[in-house]
Amino acid sequence: MSSSVLFDAPGPRARRRYAVIGVASIVGLLLVLWFVIDKLNEKGQLTAAKWEPFLTGEIWTEYLIPGLVGTLTAAAIAMVLALTLGGLLGVGRLSSAAWIRWPCSIVVEFFRAVPVLLMMLFTYALFAFYETFPPDRLALAAVITGLTLYNGSVVAELVRSGVHSLPKGQNEAALAVGLTTGKTMRLVLLPQAVTAMLPAIVGQLVVVLKDTALGYIITYEELLRKAEQIGNYKSNLLPALIVVGAIFVLVNWMLGSLAVRVEQRTRRRGRSAGGPIAPDQVDQGTAANAAAAAVPTTPGHV
Amino acid sequence: MDVISEFFSEYDGLGAFRQTIYLTLVSALLALVIGTVVAVMRVSPIRVLQLIGTAYVNIVRNTPLTLVIVFCNLGLFLQLGISLADQNSPTSIDDNNFRLAVLGLSVYHAAFVAEAIRSGVNTVPLGQAEAARAIGLPFLKTLRYVVLPQAFRGAIAPLGNVLIALTKNSTVASVIGVTEASAVMKVMMENRPDVIFVVFGIFAVGFVILTLPVGILFTSLSKRLAVKR
User: Per the CB < 8 Å rule, is B200 touching A293?
Assistant: First the structure.
């Protein structure tokens, strides 16, 4: 439903009223902004000395870019591993053999219910105690393990809902021409499910990228940790946090737009018998229809 | 299994989980209020309010929660001196950390609440809003009496997902010194590295116990309260 059905096309009086409220909210917004800037100024946060470092090459080459590389490395490795794990668990959950289906279901439900931070703290302590990884790789390994286990379960659920979104005829037709259940899955259902899942998987990248910031807590050298280091070095913690926040928003926003574009492309090309699964994380604008809201979403997908 | 008895006696594990639940509930209530306001702004006829709502959702949703929480403590409190607790009270530091964590958690999850409610608004058939307009209700009354009551009932499942996510995300509050479950787990693991599997198991099961019934409850609620059409 587009929002416009909630109100009539404004007449002259309503237009005037809307204009008044609109101007009032702009004034209110400006007042809030002015208050924030005044407060920042009062605390000496707006001096050139605090912001100038971000115009120098050193802050970028020594801190921000290595931090972004750290964030992206962890996110990329975790996503690749999560896709592998999720694919296996998802197919396992769809298996007709109960002894495969049940363990997979338990693993998926367990790792979706446990906070990612808890898993990172646990794997960090685990790897440290058994000295599985060299000390300088310890935090990265813990971040990747935590993210992989959680997002693997999310991907598994995506695979399942992708296969379930296909019309029943696909499965029946494949069995009718004599394919085994395994071949039906591999040759008919999964390729279409992956096409339908693609936008949601790209959207999941945003979640992974955001969750790498949890690595800050276990001393992984990612953007947030680098912001703190910049703050200690140039004593401009607040500006550093704002700049790093802006970088996160920019990168995630680009990924989110990509997900929307992938979804539109999938919808247009119609390669899959099921519709595309809308990415949870992505703004679907007013084009979102009721069907998109009816697609089973993954709990704790935030 | 002396670790399990240690969990209850020495580390006050139940107290830690009580703190997790308290943190979750307070933040959830605040997030619901902020989220509803943002959702109403996004569907309102006034362009400026729509833009503010959209900007809020897009910025907050693309920022890591850890950054938001760290910002609340290091930015708001330490740099700007904004304190949310009475300086003279003996528990001032703990209160302040807790309230800053609530602020961060609710501001962050409000964006997801707003999206959930908007998806609920999408489930309300066009005819409902058109009928409300036809009998002469203005925009806010259309929302209050016709659209939002149905939208909330349609948004129960996604709101339940946000609550589950909030329960799990409340662990991030440990980064600014709120002694909830993950903070206690970290201390236990540092003291007893020989039994980390048991320690992790206890806390993981704790979270399964917290989130699983919520999921089942909201799924059944969403079916029971779904508007029959």
Answer: no
Partners of residue B212 in chain A, C-beta under 8 Å: 109, 113
Cα–Cα distance for residue pair B154/B229, rounded to 1 Å: 12
| Backbone dihedral angles phi then psi of residue A298, each to the nearest 5 degrees | -85, 125
Q: ipTM for the complex?
A: 0.92
**What pLDDT does residue B128 have?**
92
DSSP secondary structure code for residue B76 in this structure: I
The identity of residue A155, as a single letter, is: V
pLDDT over threshold 50, residue A296:
no
Cβ neighbours of B126 in A, within 8 Å: 1, 5
Q: Cα separation of B44 and B170, whole Å?
A: 31
3-state SS record for B116-153: HHHHHHHHCCHHHHHHHHHCCCCHHHHHHHHHHHHHHH
CB–CB of B31/B56 below 8 Å? no
Backbone φ and ψ for A192, nearest 5 degrees, come out as -75, -35
**Could you give the CA distance from residue A28 to residue A19 in angstroms, rounded to a whole number?**
14
Pick the CATH number of A69-222 from 1.10.3720.10, 3.40.190.80, 3.30.1490.20, 3.40.50.720: 1.10.3720.10
- Test A301 with B161 for CB contact under 8 angstroms: yes
Using a CB-CB cut-off of 8 Å, the residues of chain A touching B49 are 21-22, 25
Structure tokens at B39: 């959702």
Asked if the model's pLDDT at residue A4 lies above 70, the reply is no
CB A207 within 8 A of CB A198: no
Chain B interface test: which of A1, A6, A242 (most B C-beta within 10 Å)? A6
Element (H, E) at A68: helix A65-94
Contact list in B for residue A241 (CB cut-off 8 A) is: 67, 70-71, 74-75
Q: d(Cα A279, Cα A155) in Å, to the nearest integer? A: 12
Distance CA B124, CA A214 (A): 38
Contact A7, B129 (CB under 8 A): no
Shortest distance, CA A55 to any CA of chain B (angstroms) = 21
pLDDT over 90 at A251, yes or no: yes
Considering only residues 26 to 45 of chain B, which have any Cβ-Cβ distance to chain A shorter than 8 Å? 42-45
Mean pLDDT of A285-297: 34
Category of A298 on φ-ψ map: left (φ > 0), alpha (ψ -120 to 50) or beta = beta
